[in-house]
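Notes, Module 5: Reading structure tokens.

Key idea: the token line is not a picture. It is a compressed description, and you learn to read it the same way you learned to read a sequence, by spotting repeated patterns. We will look at two proteins. The first is printed below with its tokens.
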Amino acid sequence: MRIGLMIEGQEGVTWDQWVALARTCEDHGIGALFRSDHYNGLMGDESRDATDAWALIAALAAVTSTVRLGTLVSPVTFRHPSVLAKMVATADHVSGGRVELGLGAGWNEREHEAYGFDFPDLGTRFELLEEQAAIIRAQFTEEVVSFAGDHYRLQELQPLPHPLQSPVPLIIGGSSGSRSAALAARVADEYNHVMASVDDLPERQARLDAACEQVGRDPATLARSQMTGCVVGHTQEQVLARVERVMAKAGAEGDPTSFVEQQTGRWVIGTVEEVRDQLGRLEELGVERIMLQHLVHEDLEMVALIGDELVSEGSGPAA
């Protein structure tokens, strides 16, 4: 299983901390650094700094050399698809071909209200997602793009430069409901399960397989990944100490031991040995890449631990 790191970029991550995270990933063999794409803090504190995801990725691309960079996921409500495609292609050139685009319908109504973004009903947001995926894929691969949909119109667009990658990998994420599974089967390179439990995964995977078969696609060609919370330590005491920091960041109440019990089967959480077993179980369920959500982003020691003890165990870089 390939292993990457996922950071909640809206929770006060400074530029210096981003650089430190990226360099720690590269120094310790973690092949991917992904971030959320939100404009407001989501863990009870809207006053935390929230940088723009694609401006930040382009900047990181210029100061890194091996780590892959991407979003989980960019809401279709934030940017026009032609603008987003241009931003992603630009970042791909800056990085030398190391970016990936996660695309989603968006869900946090409060940040849309705060920033003045339209927040249509879910059905309309899925229509936007479907049109944006088609437009972005076309801009990545075609010489001239014209498009006439219900929400977007493009006329004889020459989308240059194309990304260095042919094309940039497109990730659709969610809980593999019928609509997102069908869209992923048609256009995505990868489907990212969000916070799925080991009990949820077989049914979710089966829905993706069925969606692929319905459009004549080999299900094996749709990569499967998972994004989930992560806490890992050398000892149980170290795990609980890190859990305390996660709870403080998220404003969660209770004791760390209860938190661990509540997240069992959903988060990747425990000692190195326990986490190896959990990752093995996820791999058995068809998860090819795990994006470990690291909420206490200033804890670089845990990032190094993931690279040294988990990636080095044969998982390889998260390319």
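Here is the second protein, with the sequence above and the tokens below, as before.
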Amino acid sequence: MSDGIYVYCIIRSNGEKKSFGNVGFGGNEVYTIDYRDFSPVVSIAPIKKYEVNEEEVELHKNIVQSVMNEHSVIPVAYGMVFKNRKLITVAMSAGYKAIKKAMDAIDNKIELGVKVITPKDAAPDGKKEECRSDFLEKLKSIASDSKELKLFSERLVLNASFLVAKDKINEFSVEVEYLSNKYDYLKTQYSGPWPPYNFVDIHVLSKKKGGFR
């Protein structure tokens, strides 16, 4: 099996190669390749079809999370591996406008998740819609953007992600705490910070989902 270059995410470029350590697939170095004012964050990895493998998906996510500690990141879909550097350049050129638009939208922002859940043995309650509206109205007023996600359980009152500027994280967290105390008969799950998975097209380097070029 031959090796290619695997892309984890994209950050703004400062014109210098940056290393994030030997934490990539196979213990290979994770580093940046510059393309104009952006840098794909990459490592050497086998050219193969990356099936959904829990360990490999976790490694991919952990690297993106680690890079996010220092940079605004555009996460790239799991399994994006290129045969060589030239093909990455071609993909970056083709996706440049989308990448620039995405970075403008998420720069200096992170994703935070809020779920509101009805406890298992709770009595039927008619205030669920009021609670949902209250959470959305108050949190949307602080966030830059929001996405309501699938209610995958009947017990879910709200499942939403919010794009929040880094200087508003504390204000957002205080509001989440206030609302969870206000509706303390419901359970609130607050998660993050995450890379902005729900607010960018993570397939910016490919016309198809998964696979290699």
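Summary for the second protein:
- Residues 109-197 form a domain with the Alpha-Beta Plaits fold (CATH 3.30.70.600).
- The chain has two domains: 3-106, 109-197.
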